[in-house]
């Protein structure tokens, strides 16, 4: 059987049923990171929200961003971050992927997602926001900027990384982290979770020089 | 053996050797998408660049972004996109991950990455920029906006999706795409590539209702 290529043009795309289009377009960008964002209100109410849009923005200074909609289920998270300027980002692993997904339910503001889904808050000196005890790579972030994307009013929330907490088995001699060994998962579309299997690490690419596999595993 | 948690604070982070810090901080955001961006100059010179920062920004309108540095290896890509307002995004799969990585070498502006790495340009009516023939999920994008992130002068390049080309075997009845079946890969850190294995799809989360697995595979 020969595979066929489907072509969907912009007119067809804009006339698709709302939920169908959401599934389709969310699949186009490829695999996404799976992270839990921990935060706390000025009154001390903790909040935990899964986010698949965390993105590396720079190493020096160490900056990380994520996309938020003003009226999304992450509304408490966003309010907390703006109020306290502090949050944590916790990689989701294959032991907690279902609990992580459950944090996307629209709990009431006064309900704590940690309790509701069965994850454990953990605190670190000097960091106001809660970490997820079950996450094996996590870091505290200080809010630096909230940029509004005028085209659709989504927000790019940017913070600087202040404290990294990391399972030592995964840190390699060159500074890279073997997040596969931490069983970190990735997401595709709106609701599909995946574990990974390494194809390989590749050397820094140069013109007219063949790539080599970095064999440190 | 008990795993130890390493703590790295902001002072330690900023004093790390440049390359070590780049590896470390690039590992923190989690798994990243692997995409090739195809573009063409006003003079007709094609360009192809791997990007691990493509991110979903919205489904209606369908918007996609990626992060670029003004002086990165993607400099020809950025010039082309600004000159022509048209580019393509092509998911990298396990048949072409090494060729895809090789596009990150600093080729001269007049050298075509398609030829240099052994990938095939493919054209579609109405789309100026080249697609990658070997990619099984790809789409044309019209430039909408280039936002400068003031904190580190990186750019968020935002475009609207105009034409989707997709292997039909991967499109599910609800609009989601089984990108794992297309052998799409993901990236961790600066240079590690991974294939995936599905843990499951999960139902839309609601408070006080258990999640169910969506069993359509």
TrEMBL record, chains A, B:
Residues 37-171 form the Flavin reductase like domain. Pfam families: Flavin_Reduct. Its cofactor is FMN. It comes from the Bacteria. InterPro entries: Flavin_Rdtase-like_dom (IPR002563), Split_barrel_FMN-bd (IPR012349). Keywords: Flavoprotein, FMN. PANTHER family: FLAVIN REDUCTASE LIKE DOMAIN-CONTAINING PROTEIN (PTHR33798:SF5), FLAVOPROTEIN OXYGENASE (PTHR33798). Belongs to the flavoredoxin family. This is Flavin oxidoreductase.
């Amino acid at each position: 059987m020969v595979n066929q290529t489907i072509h969907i043009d912009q007119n067809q795309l804009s006339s698709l049923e709302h939920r169908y289009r959401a599934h389709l377009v969310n699949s186009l960008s490829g695999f996404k990171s799976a992270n839990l964002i921990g935060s706390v209100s000025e009154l001390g109410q903790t909040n935990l929200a899964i986010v698949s849009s965390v993105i590396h923005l720079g190493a020096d200074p160490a900056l990380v961003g994520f996309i938020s909609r003003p009226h999304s289920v992450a509304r408490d998270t966003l309010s907390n971050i703006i109020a306290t300027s502090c949050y944590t980002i916790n990689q989701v692993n294959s032991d907690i992927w279902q609990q992580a997904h459950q944090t996307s339910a629209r709990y009431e503001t006064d309900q704590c997602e940690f309790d509701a889904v069965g994850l454990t808050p953990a605190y670190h000196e000097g960091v106001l926001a809660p970490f997820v005890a079950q996450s094996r790579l996590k870091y505290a972030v200080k809010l630096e900027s909230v940029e509004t994307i005028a085209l659709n009013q989504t927000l790019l929330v940017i913070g600087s990384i202040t404290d990294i907490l990391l399972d030592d088995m995964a840190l390699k001699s060159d500074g890279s982290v073997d997040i596969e060994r931490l069983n970190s998962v990735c997401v595709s579309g709106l609701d599909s979770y995946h574990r990974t299997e390494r194809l390989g690490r590749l050397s820094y690419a140069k013109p007219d020089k063949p790539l080599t596999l970095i064999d440190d595993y």
